[in-house]
Automatic annotation (TrEMBL):
Domain of life according to the entry: Eukaryota
Family in the record: Belongs to the major facilitator superfamily.
Underlying gene: Mfsd9
Chief location category: membrane
Transmembrane portions of the chain: 20-45, 57-83, 113-135, 142-163, 234-255, 267-286, 298-331, 352-374, 386-405
Protein name: MFSD9 protein
């Protein structure tokens, strides 16, 4: 998935300009994807809870393949925009895979497994740009890259279709395990409103539910999450997403202006950071054991480290300091992404894993929409403006965790 996508992403801005788009039009078209993701992430995640992971994943992969196939024939701006629409709506395969993993593994194993999942995803992002860059040197390189990406998604659709699995069996097994765990802990089963509301659908064979019932169930799940008090956790995700996006927003330009670094060296630094991030995914398991499974403490400490590194980068006076920041920044953000996903699932209950992960992705998409605006405003004052603002936002997330989430975390229950 990400191998194919990362072949295309670095080429999009150049391709849309070659079609005659001005920088402003290119920016507006680029924001279409983020806006579609903002509204579709929660819907698709909840949809996967209702109809099952297999059907939703198959649909998402198939429509994404259609989008990248259209991109391969986009010789006009209209075709380009049409190609981005199905991808913006249905490119949620990774979120559904995370929800499926949360169905299949126990709560204690979840950070380890999601960490490995993120590591493999990072490997795809390391290899993809190199292959895409090679293909662009050929005649019609962008179109070749698009068709290769489309072919990879068709291959993924075939894998989803032929691999043996049973959504109903997973849901029933997970339901019964959760119920046993609650009773063993001495608590009343399903005290969480989300789990209480979704328990009735856990054992239903949703493949045969009428379409209207599916839509009603999706809207009900979303309403339950929106009316929950998970917004503290979502706020932490939003602030940290903004902070990280601001760190990367003018990274290449700032290095050129501050340290006279060539674009080639900047590219090497970004590839190095991605490699470190991939290795960091495999550190999540040992780190979780070191913290005795305390995801909240892991998230708090990784957020503090991220805040400090952004502040250090904003005040760096030599390139070796930037290199040092990039190394540990990749580690802290990789662990932080895994922890915030696990914390959402711990607080909200795994019966709504698709809805919760989708809501988290919507929050992240909102951050990707807002970050360029804040970055442009901050750069009006200084090239160091975006990371300075990012450090302030990361500090706000840390303060929120210290003063809001601990009281709810101590009871190990957030009433949703």
């Amino acid at each position: 998935d990400l191998f194919g996508v990362s072949m295309i992403i670095p080429l999009l801005s150049h391709h849309v300009k070659s079609l005659g788009a001005t920088p402003t039009v290119a920016g507006i078209i680029g924001s279409v994807y983020g806006v579609l993701q903002l509204f579709s992430s929660t819907l698709v995640g909840s949809w996967s809870d209702v109809i099952g992971r297999r059907r939703s994943l198959l649909m998402c992969v198939t429509f994404s393949a259609l989008g990248y196939g259209l991109l391969g024939v986009s010789s006009t701006l209209i075709l380009y925009i049409l190609a981005r629409i199905p991808v913006g709506i249905f490119k949620h395969s990774l979120s559904i895979c995370k929800a499926l993993l949360s169905d299949l593994v126990s709560e204690n194993e979840r950070p380890l497994v999601i960490g490995h999942f993120n590591a493999v995803s990072s490997v795809g992002f390391i290899l993809g740009p190199a292959v895409g860059g090679y293909l662009t040197e050929l005649e019609g390189g962008f179109y070749i890259s698009s068709f290769v990406c489309c072919s990879l998604f068709i291959l993924n659709a075939g894998l989803v279709w032929i691999l043996p699995w049973d959504d109903t069996g997973v849901a029933q097994s997970h339901f019964s395990n959760n119920k046993k765990n609650h009773r063993r802990d001495g608590a009343q089963p399903w005290t969480s409103n989300v789990e209480n509301s979704l328990i009735s659908t856990a054992s239903i064979k949703t493949h045969f539910k009428p379409a209207w019932n599916e839509i009603t169930s999706v809207l009900q799940k979303i309403n339950i999450v929106l009316s929950s008090n998970l917004w503290d956790v979502f706020s932490v995700r939003f602030l940290m997403t903004l902070a990280v996006m601001l760190y990367y927003s003018n990274f290449a330009l700032a290095l050129e202006e501050r340290f006279f670094l060539k674009q080639k060296m900047t590219g090497y630094l970004i590839s190095y950071s991605s490699t470190i991030g991939a290795f960091a995914g495999f550190l999540v398991g040992p780190t979780t054991k070191l913290y005795h499974g305390n995801t909240y403490s892991m998230l708090l400490h990784s957020s503090i480290l991220t805040c400090f590194l952004i502040f250090f980068y904003a005040n760096a006076v030599a390139f070796w300091q930037v290199f040092l920041c990039a190394t540990f920044f990749s580690i802290s953000t990789t662990i932080g992404r895994t922890c915030i996903t696990d914390l959402e699932l711990r607080c909200g209950g795994t019966q709504a894993s698709g809805t919760l992960i989708g809501a988290g992705q919507s929050i992240a998409a909102l951050g990707r929409v807002v970050a360029p605006i804040l970055s442009g405003f901050a750069q009006e004052f200084t090239p160091c403006g975006p990371p300075w603002l990012g450090a302030i936002l990361a500090l706000s997330a840390v303060m929120l965790m210290l003063f809001r989430i601990p009281q709810e975390n101590e009871s190990k229950k957030i009433k949703i």
